[in-house]
Amino acid sequence: MEELLAEMEERRKRVLAGGGPERIQKQHEAGKMTARERIDYLLDKGSFVELQPFAEHLETPLMQGLEAPADGVVTGYGKIGGRTVFVFSQDFTVLGGSLGKTHGRKIAHLMDLAVRVGAPIIGLNDSAGARIQEGVDSLSGYGEVFYRNAVYSGVVPQISAILGPCAGGAVYSPALTDFVLMSKGTSYMFITGPEVIKSVTREEVSFEELGGSAVHSQKSGVAHLEREGDAGVLEAIRKLLTYLPQNAREKPPLRPNKDPKERKTPELLGLVHPDPRRPYNMHQLIRTIVDEGEFLELQPEFARNIITGFAHLGGQSVGIVANNPRFMAGALDINASDKAARFIRTCDCFNIPILTLVDVTGFLPGVAQEHQGIIRHGAKMLYAYAEATVPKITLIVRKSYGGAYLAMNSRDMGADVVLAWPTGAVAVMGAEGAANIIYRKEIQASADPAATRAAKIAEYKKAFDNPYVAAGRGYIDDVIDPAETRRLLILHLEMLASKQEERPYKKHGNMPL
Ligand code: HXC
Questions:
Q1: How far is the CA of 132 from the centre of ligand 1 (A)?
Q2: SS3 content of the chain, % helix, strand, coil (to 5)
Q3: Is CATH 3.30.240.20 correct for 266-430+466-497?
Q4: Catalytic residue numbers?
């Protein structure tokens, strides 16, 4: 037995050594942790249990004589905040973390297990892509993972950290997951690299400029969060999980805290100016309402005209969607519609109630927007809200006009509770535009068109640019004092906690894409 144990230990030692001290040093010099250091940093101390450490690489003529401990990916389970999670961590020190058949199969097995158990899957990506020596088998390994990413979407949360290269078709595994987090300066994602681009289009571009974390956080919208180094990303994953349930059958955990549920929010009275053209800080509004001022914003640098993220209200996890009047006057454009629609669906599949804060003039006008398909993209947002069966609360902070009024979770699109501040205004359009259209002839015919226009605008404002017409028709449930916002939102959320909503049978809906 001693001999057998010694052999087992010897084999395990070789596995734990990964690609060896030189490559590990290179990894550290690049500012990155090793695959195993990342797992230790991510999970509750000492909780990791490894699976399949002795997995062997596929035998192909080109793989002869090559060593691939654990086949370049460490897989297993452990705890985060006391809850079970499944993790795979690609080992760049082993053949560049390239994905061979066994590597892919290990990840696929882990995903199967995670779904049987009902626990989140976290992927730590750091890989040179398909293992060239294994040819089509390595592509098959990717296929096994992509297939599960899609089939298990909405079953358990799937989180992808990009902590090194992620290139070629390999990007589609993270892209199919719920959340993508990238480390600043050490990670990149692209379909075709700088060399190929140069040979095809003659464009010259660096790795960072092509697919670094800044690009995917600001321009492409691929990344949900960008953080400093491995540590920053791994800490963000721990935080993100506090808002999520273990699986689609569960609710997110309650997070009791010291912030009183009845806390008044009088500071909001001075925040929002009744003049709809005056911008204010929507982030400040959110932080004032939520528990302990804590808001985890997702995609903060992308489509900044809409804000999406998680917070707690009275200990309950909520997803917040808010117009941001500081950017494009909060108008909805293509990117904002995509960002919001995706977030709404993320909340809905994981039973996270949605709070919508409205201050919007409409969809962004413009030839470019129309030609790029604002109709198709805006439709995603309407679809996502209507489809969502989680509790849905809307607070109309200020203006809410036209199609955007409907798109921002209005009563008729399925909101459970609609509140408005006295500054709220629901109308087909702003008073200036409306008066110009419906009183055009009268204005033109008058002796003093400017004065008549001003009088008509004032008349329209009085009649429609307020929350009371909509409240009078039942489109708004109550007009509230801003100082009561937090208290009332928590009460409504608690009332809605047992909400059940059945939908007609279908295979699945056909969401506009
Ligand atoms: C096998 C690979 C490999 C690969 C790198 N290595 N890429 N082994 N398959 N795809 C090995 C190297 O030989 C080296 O081994 C070690 O990994 C580290 O690589 P380096 O080049 O020394 O590292 P670095 O300088 O940091 O450069 C990293 C890199 C580069 C930029 C990722 O390795 C690279 O460009 N690799 C090729 C990437 C690629 O084209 N992959 C296929 C993409 S297509 P030693 O023994 O020297 O340490 C794809 C399709 C997916 O992925 C399809 C899904 C459907």
A1: 8
A2: 45, 20, 35
A3: no
A4: 168-169, 403-404
